From TrEMBL, chain A:
A Pfam family per the record: FabA
Membrane-spanning ranges: 52-75
Organism of origin: Gramella jeungdoensis
Protein name as catalogued: Beta-hydroxyacyl-ACP dehydratase
Signal peptide feature range: none
PANTHER family: 3-HYDROXYACYL-[ACYL-CARRIER-PROTEIN] DEHYDRATASE
Record's keyword terms, sorted: Lyase, Membrane, Transmembrane, Transmembrane helix
UniProtKB/TrEMBL annotation, chain B:
Biological source species: Gramella jeungdoensis
Residues making up the signal peptide according to the UniProt record: none
Name this polypeptide is given: Phosphopantetheine-binding protein
Domain Carrier: 4-81
Pfam families reported for this sequence: PP-binding
Transmembrane segments: none
Superkingdom: Bacteria
InterPro entries in UniProt: ACP-like_sf, PP-bd_ACP
């Protein structure tokens, strides 16, 4: 499965898709990038007259690239899926160091801790264009059933 | 390894994942991971990985599916230790 195919299997769409591109992927790690469009609605309210990307959205971006994209790659490698798996976030523990302004591009790097019994747990970091650490943490997701009926 | 020893070690492993602490007071074979201890399926995976490390065994998908109670876990551990 190539990098573009993974994006096609993602179960998200605008305005909640936070992956633009997979830069590198293998069975132990993934690197991807995303540019936060200034058009996102949440910038109107977070914060008033001072738009910054909410931490929950940074976490979502880390989860989509670091756990979901890697999960799709791993499932496909084992030929477990052909459609879109039914997935859920099961835990996240994240620390935040830098803010991300509208229009900024971030890079997410994720390393697999384990993929067992349909649970994928990863150590994930996000960097800005100056290669500064934006946030990092441990995020895990589960596959609830092997495939959704389409 | 005695049954009591397995259950004591199992109790130590599950403690950090338990949501319903009262369930730990009467920790025995009939204790149900989901209903009595409120350990969800995501955390049960972590319990199983810790069990693998603690007892130096490998647990497969089928065993996990049959692991609903402390007694189930004890039997799986005993069988794996014997087989190993």
């Amino acid at each position: 499965m190539d990098k573009k195919d993974i994006l096609k299997h993602l179960p998200y769409s605008k305005p909640f898709l936070f992956v633009d591109k997979i830069l590198e992927i293998n069975e132990n790690s993934v690197t991807g990038q995303y540019t936060f469009s200034p058009e996102h609605d949440f910038y109107k309210g977070h914060f008033k007259a001072n738009p910054l990307t909410p931490g929950v959205i940074l976490t979502e971006c880390m989860a989509q690239i670091g756990v979901v994209c890697l999960g799709i790659f791993l499932l496909n490698k084992d030929k477990i899926i052909s459609g879109r798996p039914n997935i859920a976030l099961s835990s996240s523990e994240v620390e935040y160091f830098k803010s991300v302004i509208p229009g900024e591009t971030v890079k997410v790097v994720s390393e697999k801790q384990y993929f067992r019994f349909n649970k994928l747990k990863c150590k994930v970091s996000m960097f800005n264009n100056s290669e500064e650490l934006v946030c990092r943490g441990v995020i895990a997701g589960m596959i609830l059933d092997k495939e959704r009926n389409e | 390894m005695s049954e009591k020893e397995i259950i004591d070690r199992l109790k130590k492993i599950v403690e950090p994942y338990v949501q319903r602490v009262e369930g730990l007071q009467n920790f025995q074979e009939n204790t149900d991971f989901l209903n009595d201890l409120e350990i969800n399926s995501a955390n049960l995976v972590d319990v199983v990985l810790d069990v693998e490390d603690e007892f130096d065994i490998e647990i497969d998908n089928d065993s996990l599916e049959g692991m609903l109670t402390v007694g189930d876990a004890k039997s799986i551990i005993q069988n794996k230790i014997k087989a190993g």
